[in-house]
Amino acid sequence: MKTDSVGQLVFDDSDLIDLIMQGRDLESISGILTDSTVDIEAAAFWLERVPEFTCWSEPPTQEVFDVMQQSNWHMPDEYKQLDIAKHILDCCDTPEETQRCGQELLMYQERNLFDLLRYLKYLVDVMTQNHVIWGVGRGSSVASHVLYKLGVHRIDSMFYDLAPEEFLR
Question: What's the whole-model pTM score?
Answer without folding.
Answer: 0.64
